[in-house]
Amino acid sequence: MYQTKSTVFAKACGLTLALGVASTANAAFVVNGGSTQGLPIVDNSFNTEITGLGFDQMVSGGQLSVSQDGFIDFFYIGAESGFNNSFNAESSALSGNNKGFLTEHNEAFNFSGYAGFTLSVSANDIVNFNFTSDNAQALTPVDNFSASNLEGLGIYSNSQSGSLTQILLGYDDQIFNDDNDFEDMLVRAEFRPAQTTPVPLPAAVWLFGGGLTALAGFVRRPSRRH
Ligand SMILES: [Ca+2]
Ligand SMILES: [Ca+2]
């Protein structure tokens, strides 16, 4: 894993930063602006795989940010493109890994990911990533941080999930040809709140909370039955 001297130094400060994180429920990725369309998308080669995983909408032209301190795991999961595309991301956070680079190297879809890396991010950060292509006709770079060429970026999500902790970033490298398939390079992004990583909650706490929810549902349901 690539590391700079500043990364190593920042890791030494990580504990102090993690302890300062406030707990915020249901906060993660935030998509600002853009236009939303339902899935499947015409001519998207991975419609079956994407909708089968519960993703039901995509925002094109939007900008991605995060609402709290945490970590983003990025995974290259596939591509359908005649061009060579790549993905760069960089963190402004003072702790953890601060850079990553992915290239498309398998023209297929694998949700587990062919390659990945993790970045630290801070609350209210605009996520600093871009897609580039060797297609001279592409809008390149599609840069989320500077909001350049965002019409080439598609952000897939599950509208029913409540909090946006898992999304797909889809690159459209033929935007001038009105291709609009947004799978010329696909990257899965998962957000993990900072407080869950240094000090995970004991399993018993989750079981207790889930038990209460299940009990409440059990009590309410009979009155709704026909
Ligand atoms: Ca495309
Ligand atoms: Ca394509």
3D architecture notes:
With 226 residues, the chain is of the alpha+beta class. It has one domain (5-200). The chain has helices spanning 5-12, 14-19, 47-52, 203-220, and strands at 29-32, 35-38, 57-60, 63-66, 70-78, 85-90, 99-103, 115-121, 128-133, 142-143, 153-157, 166-171, 185-193. The protein has a seven-stranded antiparallel β-sheet with strand order 2-3-11-12-13-5-8, with no helix packed on it. A hairpin with an 8-residue loop joins strand 11 and strand 12. The protein is globular, with a radius of gyration of 19 Å. The N and C termini lie far apart (59 Å). Mean pLDDT is 79; it is low at 1-25, 198-202 and 204-226. Bound molecules: calcium ion (2 copies). Residues 80-81, 181, 183-184 line the site of one calcium ion.
Give a topology summary.
Elements: H1 5-12, H2 14-19, E1 29-32, E2 35-38, H3 47-52, E3 57-60, E4 63-66, E5 70-78, E6 85-90, E7 99-103, E8 115-121, E9 128-133, E10 142-143, E11 153-157, E12 166-171, E13 185-193, H4 203-220
Antiparallel strand pairs: 1-4, 2-3, 3-11, 5-8, 5-13, 6-7, 6-9, 9-10, 11-12, 12-13
Bound molecules: calcium ion (CA) (2 copies).
One calcium ion is lined by residues 80-81, 181, 183-184.
Q: What is the approximate shape?
A: globular
Number of strands: 13
Supply the number of structural domains: 1
Strand content: 25-35%
- Biggest sheet statistics: 7 strands, antiparallel
Q: Trace the largest sheet across and list its strands.
A: 2-3-11-12-13-5-8
**What is the average per-residue confidence, as pLDDT, rounded to a whole number?**
79
- Helices, by number, come to 4
End-to-end distance: 59 Å
Helix content: 10-25%
Bound molecules: calcium ion
Provide the succession of SSEs. Answer: HHEEHEEEEEEEEEEEH
**pLDDT below 50 for ≥5 consecutive residues: which ranges?**
1-25, 198-202, 204-226
